Amino acid sequence: MESLPFFIFFSTLFIQSLHFLSFSADIITPDLPVKDGQTLISVSQSFELGFFSPGTSKYRYVGIWYKKSPETVVWVANRNNPLTDHFGVLTIDNRGNLVLLDQIKNIIWSSKSSSIIAGPVAQLLDSGNLVVRDNGSSRNTESYRWQSFDQPSDTLLPGMKLGWNLKTGQERYLYTWRSISDPSPGDFTYRLDIHGLPQLFIVVGSVKKVRSGPWNGIFFGGTPKVHNSVFEPILVRNEDEIYYTYRLLNNSVCSRLTLNQSGAVERLVMYGQNSGWTTIYSVPVDTCENYGQCGANGICRTRTSPICECLKGFKSIPEEELDIQNFYGSRKCETRLTLDCQSGEGFLKLPGVKLPDLLEFRLNESMNLKECEAECFKNCSCSAFATTNLSGGGDGSGCLMWFGNLIDIREQSGSTIGQDIHIRVPASELEMARSSKRKKMLKTALVASMSALLGIFVSGLVLCISWRKIKRKVGMDRRKEGMEAPLFDLDTIATATNNFAPDSIIGAGGFGSVYKGKLLTGQEIAVKKLSMNSGQGVEEFRNEVVLIAKLQHRNLVGLLGSCIHREERMLIYEYMPNKSLDYFIFGLIPLTHCLFCHISSLSICNVLHVLN
Ligand SMILES: *[C@@H]1O[C@H](CO)[C@@H](O)[C@H](O)[C@H]1NC(C)=O
Ligand SMILES: *[C@@H]1O[C@H](CO)[C@@H](O)[C@H](O)[C@H]1NC(C)=O
Ligand SMILES: *[C@@H]1O[C@H](CO)[C@@H](O)[C@H](O)[C@H]1NC(C)=O
Ligand SMILES: *[C@@H]1O[C@H](CO)[C@@H](O)[C@H](O)[C@H]1NC(C)=O
Ligand SMILES: *[C@@H]1O[C@H](CO)[C@@H](O)[C@H](O)[C@H]1NC(C)=O
Ligand SMILES: *[C@@H]1O[C@H](CO)[C@@H](O)[C@H](O)[C@H]1NC(C)=O
């Protein structure tokens, strides 16, 4: 009678699912527990609580998930202590503790409410919060005896707090799941640091991995730019609490913040009823996000190669002088060009960066930028200053001063938002900055006057030509408007670069990769393959290629042509063996050309955009 156990098993399942169907309350009371197979559903059907087995696990856990996306578990009760059988019961005892019992009534997990309450009720709210309250007390009060929002798993739902209760010292932060089948806490955490100004960190153990910039009154500096109508970030700071939270702006759009198993923080959104989750941004964005990537007093830029550079006023220690241990460490840019407090020192503005970490600093939120500069100037070990509060507009208010080394500065990339910082530099750097500014102004003036002359000349020429045209009434041999730079086909370029062989790559960056190749004619070329996500249409790309070709000066490296194949966009240059790689990557259009932006109706800055 082998089929009997199966019959019993299936009929149990059937009965359980019947039970499941008939059970759709949102509360647990001592008389109304939830058994494995049953669920609680919040009033407007947004969240569901019940028993589940994640991934390939055979264990049972109690969790909360989106009703319309049951695979998205947002909270787990017994994450460290799974049930090994299918007979778990979640109930509430007379003292108001939520307790999870296994088949033989062992306590697997308990909520440990702080005080005894009379008519205890646990309720799953529409926010996804499971709360314990007095039956007597009003449903709307925040006076919960216990709530699941106080014990986050890997997900921050709208209204949940990430941060500190200053009265109790309690910290709420996100953990990763250990794996897709194991919700016990993994290595990564996402937490709010509140020394000075609040900053968000992804941490492994106690090691900082990724940092947001300090909260500047509107957002965390250096975080991804999100033009969104989905959520509003909120930072609450008062004497009781400091925490980050957010609220949804459109109730028909769901959003959550999740620290996933690879240690990335993802902001996910679901627009329609069952349209699935879309990641609108994730952190880290790129290599420059790695905490302290460029060491002390270095700045990380994704669009340069190498990505690290010493800040102005610091010189790098030659690599051969670094011992291995310090090679990736913080000593690289530690040497100042001159001693501190030499006469003529001053501050240079470094715009659009993620402000350095708050290690040694001083904060005064009532100063303005001028006072801040004066204060920082007075103290030789003050290495930089910035304003702290951008919400009043202008340069901002408040004063943040850094002492000693500056750690973890990055330049704003296309997808993050930066702030201005003022860095102490020696007189020589100030002089250099001044003279380059003067040069720039001179050049602009020159270009402007030349363009005026050019304008007169061109209009004269046009008049002249039209006059001749009219006079002769001869049909012009209309030369085709020049693609001075020819189009190469993909095969030619593929052959030349040995099918874009990885070992022919001579450089790479955010723009894409540069390959060295050889045409069948024997000519050596450098192929700049732009990354696919540049999002440029064929027409725009061609126009810009024409523009670069027209801009070429005989002293510049030659653009031989371009190649467009489906989504691929490539620029093909003569290969100049004696030129540095940066020359191919960045030096192709000298800065002077950008000055034309002021006078040209064509957007030459877009050329720079293409190149970078
Ligand atoms: C809650 O209180 C009301 C009246 O005060 C009572 O009728 C109800 O049974 C109570 N419910 C629970 C679960 O204690
Ligand atoms: C975590 O998020 C990052 C960024 O969205 C993604 O690349 C990665 O695959 C995710 N990892 C897991 C395990 O989902
Ligand atoms: C809310 O989101 C839905 C779905 O994306 C959209 O159709 C609707 O226009 C949005 N409402 C508002 C007020 O933005
Ligand atoms: C902050 O700056 C103001 C104005 O300069 C000053 O009066 C005040 O004493 C400063 N506070 C601290 C804590 O330094
Ligand atoms: C400069 O600032 C540092 C750090 O706040 C402080 O320890 C030091 O005493 C200050 N020096 C002077 C001369 O004010
Ligand atoms: C930031 O500036 C705004 C506007 O000036 C002000 O209302 C707010 O209180 C300031 N915040 C802090 C923390 O000083």
UniProtKB/TrEMBL annotation:
EC number per UniProt: 2.7.11.1
SUPFAM superfamilies: alpha-D-mannose-specific plant lectins, Protein kinase-like (PK-like)
Top-tier EC class: transferase
Domain spans labelled Bulb-type lectin: 25-145
The UniProt record lists the keyword Transmembrane: yes
Cleavable signal peptide: 1-20
Domain of life: Eukaryota
Residues annotated as domain Apple: 341-426
Catalysed reactions, as listed in the record: L-seryl-[protein] + ATP = O-phospho-L-seryl-[protein] + ADP + H(+); L-threonyl-[protein] + ATP = O-phospho-L-threonyl-[protein] + ADP + H(+)
Gene Ontology MF annotations: ATP binding; protein serine/threonine kinase activity
Location of the Protein kinase domain: 500-612
Pfam family, one: B_lectin
CDD domains: B_lectin (cd00028), PAN_AP_plant (cd01098)
Positions with a binding annotation for ATP: 529
Entry keywords, A to Z: ATP-binding, Disulfide bond, Glycoprotein, Kinase, Membrane, Nucleotide-binding, Serine/threonine-protein kinase, Signal, Transferase, Transmembrane, Transmembrane helix
GO process terms (BP): recognition of pollen
Transmembrane residue ranges: 445-467, 583-611
Name listed for the protein in its UniProt record: non-specific serine/threonine protein kinase
